[in-house]
Amino acid sequence: MKKVYVNENVCMGCRLCEVYCLLKHAHTKDLIKAYKKESPRALPRVRVDESGIVSLSVRCEHCVDAPCVKACLTGALSRDPVTGLVTVDEERCIGCGTCALVCPLGVPKLDKAQKKMVKCDLCQDEEIPVCVANCPNEALVYMEEKPDTNPVVNYVNNN
Predict the structure, then answer these.
(1) How many CB atoms sit inside 10 A of residue 32's CB?
(2) Phi and psi for 101 in degrees, rounded to 5?
(3) 41 vs 5, 110, 117, 141, CA distance in Å?
(4) What does pTM read for this prediction?
(5) What are the C-alpha distances in Å from 43 to residues 9, 26, 76?
(6) Which residue of 33, 81, 128, 153 pairs with 37 in a disulfide if CB–CB is 3.0 to 4.6 A?
(7) Secondary-structure percent of the chain, ordered helix, strand, coil, rounded to 5
(8) Between 3.40.50.170, 3.40.109.10, 3.30.70.20, 3.40.50.2000, what CATH number should domain 60-119 receive?
């Protein structure tokens, strides 16, 4: 399964990953309309965390042993056996937030307008997730997960 990895050495906290993720999930694909005119405004499925000079883009890791899937009261969160993605079934989701409470990264968030939880879907209808495609410093990398290694460390050490 491919995943998005972060090279925090070159992430400058510009938040373009958030902007393009919001735009991807907006009804209109116009940036100004998506931010200023859509109501309710779409939510980005990624966030940027900052601490001092370090910043990094955080999204669902689609964990192998996903605590959110185990904790979901309605079974709305599940892992696709073919792609490995952890997805939200909006028909079953009641927006209780249990998944966000157990997620080690606090990734799922409540879309208050829909009363449903939302999280990264790795832009399945795109070749590359929009956060990666639009990262100006190439701080986000979309690549195959490597078993028994930490791809982020390998990527950083090789560059």
Answers:
(1) 8
(2) -65, -35
(3) 27, 13, 15, 27
(4) 0.86
(5) 26, 8, 19
(6) 33
(7) 25, 20, 55
(8) 3.30.70.20
Q: What is the pLDDT of residues 20-30, one digit of tens each?
A: 999 999 999 89
| Cα–Cα distance measured from residue 33 to residue 88, given in angstroms and rounded to the nearest whole number | 26
Question: How far is residue 13 CA from its own chain's centroid?
Answer: 16
Those residues with Cβ within 8 angstroms of residue 156's Cβ, 6 or more apart along the chain or in another chain: 7, 9
pLDDT digits (tens, 9 = 90+) for 105-154: 999 999 999 999 999 999 999 999 999 999 999 999 999 986 654 444 44
- Separation between Cα atoms, residue 159 and residue 146, nearest integer Å: 17
Taking the alpha carbons at both ends of the chain, their separation in whole angstroms is 23
Q: Are 46 and 59 in contact (CB under 8 A)?
A: yes
**Which contiguous run of DSSP H or E holds residue 19?**
helix 16-25
Question: Residue type for 112, please?
Answer: K
**How many angstroms separate the Cα of 96 from the Cα of each of 3, 85, 87, 104, 115?**
27, 21, 16, 17, 8
